[in-house]
Hints:
Elements lengths: L17 H5 L3 H5 L4 E2 L10 H13 L9 H21 L7 E4 L2 H12 L8 E5 L8 H4 L7 E5 L9 H4 L7 E7 L11 H10 L3 E5 L11 H4 L3 E5 L9 E5 L1 H6 L23 H21 L11 H29 L3 E3 L13 E5 L5 H10 L2 E2 L1 E3 L4 H6 L8 E5 L6 H15 L8
Parallel strand pairs: 1-11, 3-4, 3-5, 5-6, 6-7
Antiparallel strand pairs: 2-8, 7-8, 9-10, 10-13, 12-13
Helix pairs in contact: 3-11, 4-11, 4-12, 11-12, 12-15
This protein binds pyridoxal-5'-phosphate (PLP).
Amino acid sequence: MSARNGAGTAAAGDDFPAEALRAEFPALQRARSFVFFDNAAGAQVPQLVLDAVNRHLLDHNVQRGGRYARSLAVDDSIARARAAVAALVGALRPEEIAFGMNATSFIRLMSLAIGQTLRDRDEIIVTDLDHEANIATWLALADSGAKFRWWKMRGDGCLHSEDLAPLLSGRTRLVACSAASNALGSITDLRSAAHLAHAAGAELFVDAVHFAPHAPLNVQALDCDYLVCSGYKIFAPHMGFMWGRYELLRALPTFREEFIADEPPGKIEAGTFVYENVAGMDAAVNYLARIGRLVTGRAGAPQAQTLREDTRHAMQAIQSYERTLSLELARVLEDCGARIYGIDDPARVPERVPTFCFNMPGFLPQAVTEAAARADIGIRDGHMYAPRLMARLGLARESGAVRVSLVHYNTLAEIHRLGNLLSDLRATEPRGEA
Length: 434
Ligand SMILES: Cc1ncc(COP(=O)(O)O)c(C=O)c1O
């Protein structure tokens, strides 16, 4: 098959309205021909989100908790955002949602709390596939007497539940894993992990930062206990949010000032968070809900009490469209002679999100991303904040690999532009060792 790519090489991604949605992202319009293929490091925001952030700063940029109208409006805005994010993840009540700066600080906050509850359950299971944010934060509990067991990925770049089972025992306090790898894109079978962890009397902590922009989240169906996300990966500005089962959060010892009640969400929200970005997160959920109404033929319908259903439909449609992108990207990379790390079998596309890690034999990762930058394509090289994973892949931490990470506003045409760039590169003299 020719490596020079054009239209008509893959099914047209169902009838997902990618082009129409691109028009809602001012950054995509302003960037003209630039290709945003580094979304795992942060996604663009739709106009709806920009408007919400602006509105907050213009109309009620004041502290919450006052008795005047502007301050009451901040309280309302935070309450709306909590309800929206609760709907997005399937929380039972808005108080199960906490807002903060980012995912890493939430994971550390949780590790500090859980570290105080170890007693005779002193073992924590971490993986060698995760972002370091969901490893180092737990390893820091060594000082509190925690012991660690490693759930290792297999050669296919996935975590397998069969490998988790023998690690669990009556000593296990918690399993910490990600819903999808930010480096390889592989999806973890969380339902099985939760089942196994609970059978051993342990809890499951999920890093859903990389998974959340790509597929429906349902914490009830997954049966996990805690879940963390970053807003800036899911079409909102920089902020983080966390969900936890109410009674579990209630029981955890967390740092809080004396005047903060020992109740979620306040007890896991140290200090003031960025209200305008939380307003932006609310708008991002509403953007997704609008996609849900669009793909179910209810574009003009008023935003009723259907946020959960609308966002679920949106994420299902996004997931299905992104599978088309994954199939085409895998085909293009293979045509260009790339060595893909992780799932490369088209039949296993449902087990991944459209995040691909690869190297071009004979070229340093940096040479590939620099060539892409010259062609106005933004991709990334390095260890992807998963240095242990790079070591497992036999890759040097300093150079690592190349990562291309797509979301629903990316298109087949953009993939073909990358394919053309890589085949042109391949035709030049190799200059590295990768
Ligand atoms: C899977 C995963 N976990 C955690 C993080 C850290 O997120 P934050 O920057 O919100 O702390 C990232 C960031 O890239 C990530 O991809």
